[in-house]
Amino acid sequence: MNSKELIAKRALVWQLISFALFFGLWESAGRWPISLAFPPFSKTSLALLRMAADGSLAKAYLSTLQPLIIGIVLCSIAGIGFGIAMGLSRAVEWFSLPVFIILQAAPMAAIIPLITYIYGIGLTAKVLAVVVLAAPVIVMNSYKGIRNTNPSLIQMCRSFLGTRRQEVMKIILPHAAALIFAGLRLGLAMGFIGIVIAELLITPTGIGDLITYHSSVADYPEMFAAIASIIVLAALTIHALERLEQKLFPPEIRGS
Amino acid sequence: MPAETIVEARGVGKSYDGAVEALKDVNLMLPHGRLSTLLGPSGCGKTTLLKIIAGLIPPSSGEVWVKGKKVEGPGPERAFVFQDFALLPWANVLRNVAFGLELRGIPKEQRSEIARRQIAEAGLSDFESSYPHQLSGGMKQRVGLARALAVDADIILMDEPFSSVDEQTRRKFQEELLDLLRHKQKTVIFVTHSIEEAAYLSDQIVLLSPRPGTVSKIIQPNIERAGRNPDEIRRDKNYLDVVEEIWQILKHYVV
Question: A93 is in which domain, residue-wise?
Fold first, then answer.
């Protein structure tokens, strides 16, 4: 075994210890109990298994993931396109940069009641909730990716008689690809927040429905299981994307 | 034998935002097939002048003529070698060297063949499929130079090309550059702040004064290089005199 594998193995051991510690604390806090509404880890896990077995979890995710995926796909196409346009054209930048700077800093969740007021409580409203949360970071990252192109590479392209089109296709876009991808990952993380808020705030459907329902009938292990499941799903998805990003765009070839 | 002029600057000036004056009334004639150096302290606008000749920056006043034509932008007869190499980090050595040809729409097989020949001449054949981050600074600049040679331009514009490589590599480069010039009919315009480098390499040295940059003196070293090794050249009386002469002028510009 070489030293790299050894380090990786040690890191894994520490991670497992950290998880064991966390779940152990959760278990003892639930058994103490610190609150009647706080179930121990074991009961929550059992509730999760029950919900997985009776199909309620799968059904909930089917309806939760639908607006999330539609929203993220919309953002990927329109958001990246818009960010690239902002990076390439001074006019588009001048016109829309202030808007996106404000959108990125603003607590966009506050807009969700307004969305309900205008678009009702259907799928459209939930997709929009995902979009308003995810779009700013996706647009801004695409814009920054374009703008941060190494000026020396652009001069190189021009000095070797590259056209503006070649400059964009062969220098600027490959250069921005890593930041654009990172924007998508951050956008998805925001999208998860958006969809949960939408399902809790607009109308309880999917995972939001599971959380609301079980909380109202005091099935606290089920409620916690639903909450934990969405946290785990979001964390694993984002982590997988981060891994993919490292593989597709290792820092050595990013060139910034 | 006086060589024919290939690059001419007529009253070139450059100011930024109408306030900072980088260059003022630069008049120059650079001979064909020779190595000319633009030398001066930092802030004398030597890189700006080189980029104006390259057509990358428009002059605020005056004009540059290359091979009897007024410069309106970059052209196929000029190739640029960058101080920071300007290699595509996501492309391997082969694609980087062939990139100038790629931009000109030369078919892949043809440009790879030309690039391979240049890579072999640069002594990098084993690194064709390496990426820039796997290369040393010296190797990166070999790639940058090979890219410029691959497009077969008459004029190679070099912006402090050896400033970010170590001293040993730099000396080796200088010898290779002289060797290259002996075998190919290239005109090189070379920007440097090193007096020794300028004296060692140049057929003609253009000394620029700082703020605003303007031609303060033109020196033709006249050092006999044929058939002599580098150490002999560096001990040549002419070489030492030129270094001294330049220093006597430049030291007044050092703050």
Answer: 41-254
